[in-house]
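Instructor's aside before we start: the two examples that follow are unrelated to each other. I chose them only because their records fit on one page, so don't look for a connection. First example below.
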Amino acid sequence: MSTPLAVTQELLFRYFAGNATTFEKQQIDTWMREEANRESFYACLDVYEHRHHQFQADAGEALERHRERIRNNGVVPAPVFRRRFPWKLTSVAAAVALVATGFLFREKLLFRKYTTGFGETRRLTLSDGSRVILNANSELKEPRFALGDTARRVYLSGEADFSVVHTPDDRRLVVKTVDGMEVVVLGTEFTVYDRHHSSRVVLRQGKVELRYREGTSFRKVILRPGELVRVKPKQELVRVERTPAPEKYRAWSEDRFVFEETSLREIVGLFEDNYGVTLEIRDPELADWTISGSFTAHNGQELLELLVEASSLKFTQTGNHILITKPTK
């Protein structure tokens, strides 16, 4: 009776490269029958792909090879090559559907995904112990595996506040945004805002390195406590500035909103991003009105009523559309 072979990362890499022996392939087939092992399989596949960019893995094809090998007692039939006709739209649509299904399945295996809806915030702890508060209408993805990676990476769309712990192995945390901006830290506290109209990083404690795109090249800037950097949508650095109260940029995590000479035009964007509500201001002069103050509100309706009352404005609401007008004399 043969001794079961340990399925290691090195063995899987040989398998992906097509260099595994028949015996090794059979052992991997048996190992893959355990659902818990499939996550490790896809994690190793992800690492292999990053190291061998010319390799284009087909998860569906790989899984079918496993099944075929099992059905035929380890013998895989020779592939049959068929002439392909690009104008057969049905075949193309089926292929696209299979690729999309495989991608979603692999995405679920490789990442833990945290999301919030409009008007919702969420507190969570990453696998390394770092704490995150995710603002409304946002998404954070954390890799389930970090095989061979020298950094802890998370992927953010929206806005989140981070309190990062220092790990014994000194691995950095890298927060990557949709537009390719990266915030690199060891242990610190900061807030990242990344929406369709602008990006912003505010540092409260520690030190972070911000990497951003400028034209076709990448630049970086070091932030220190109390500094704020704003980045335009196309990753053009605007400026680094001091802020005497960096805490105000995370006030939303405590259901507070701090405005300092904030225009109604900017507040329109806040309601769209956080609550999925459209504020319409038809009067350009009114859109430039500014509001200052700290407001506590647990939802969008409360915030709207507080702002309107504080500025003596009027509003008419129809579903998720709200028209803001000047007070009548």
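Example two begins here.
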Amino acid sequence: MKEWYIPDVKTAVIPRYKKRTGVLGLALGLILILIFGVSYYIYIVKEVTIVDDGKTLVLKTKAATVEELLKETNRILGLKDTINVPLTAKLKEGEKIVINRAKPVKIAVDGREIKLLTVAKTIADAIKEAGITVGPQDIVEPSPSELVGINTEVKIIRVKVEEKTQEVALAFRTIKRPTNGLFKGRTKVLTKGKTGLARTYYKITYYDGKVVKKEVVKQEVVKKPVDEVILVGTKDTVSRGGKVIRFSRVIEVVATAYTHTGYRTATGVYPHRGVVAVDPDVIPYGTRLYIDGYGYGTALDTGSAIKGARVDLFFDSYGEAISWGRRFTRVYVLE
């Protein structure tokens, strides 16, 4: 039976080309491993940018999603905070994550305070988010264009401007005109005075219902007043029995007559012709008088029925008193 030859591997001669092929394969394997490793690194590790409330951070991360990135960087989103991409989104190379942090804002308006947590950029945006309507004349402090900061406090002043008119009566002047056609102490209205009318137009500004400014826009006289003209008597003399009597005033009176009663007068004298009973509040005691139809007299008595423009004339006899009776006459108060 034929025996097979088994060569000694250790002593076997390997051709040169076979050695070269092994080296090339090894090198090719290393290159593939390197390429795979770099590709894996590039795929796993990404460079991203985080802009958190205006602060920018550029970093490399192995996080696969936005949520993982936030956990990796210890970032927690508040209830009203916003982010520009979904938390479940896959991260990409060069991704830019923008986080807007909500800030507390207080708005004082219409007697109440509104609190809100907002990501609004400007005060105007925050006011709009709060559902507040601002009128064209309303005042907003700080300015609506200012940026919202931390713990921003806003005040809205409601401004109302209205025009009103006010009418005022214009008093008339009283003009006294002397005349010798009237007795001294007498007056007569020649022209009756009439009040005029002035109108003022105001512009009134209210802040939250309170008047802060009142401006006169226009004034006009609607109706001019009419002066009252009063004639004032200057005539102080009359002629009686060929004699000129000078007086200070004239009183139209009701004159009655009386005679002896057995009593003295109120001033303590015995009654006699020329004694005149008067109201002392109208004609003081001791005043010298001239009474038309009676003659001279002196205020020396009074009576319970003698009030105001009324006098009682004393007569020596009952017949004279009855003859006089009761009549209207003039009493001249002598100077």
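Confidence is low (pLDDT under 50) at residues 1-14.
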